[in-house]
Design goal:
Layout lengths: L4 E6 L3 H16 L3 E2 L8 E7 L3 H20 L4 E7 L6 H8 L5 E5 L1
Parallel strand pairs: 1-2, 1-3, 3-4, 4-5
Length: 108
Amino acid sequence: MTAKTYAILNYGCQMNESDAEHYAGQLQELGYKAAEDFHDADVVVVNTCCVRESAEKRILGKIGELKGVKANHPGQIVCVALFITPCCCFNAIIPQYLTNVNQLLILI
């Protein structure tokens, strides 16, 4: 039996780097191994914030891309860890873009 794998896609500020390390540690404790390519990972964590507009735009494109990846890997779990601010445009578009996401963690 091969080990389950994970990939963490990190967008945004330096705090996200610390969060990504934390998520990786938790997944490793559960027996997951880092995947070489997120397309093949059993679990994909998209770690982002929308404090920076450039990160917000990139993440919307990546979530769209993951829809196709998930179609080719039906068992794949996609989790979005999202830090939002009250002025963040994600507040208005979350339902529209996250239909292919298994888990959403919102940090305010």
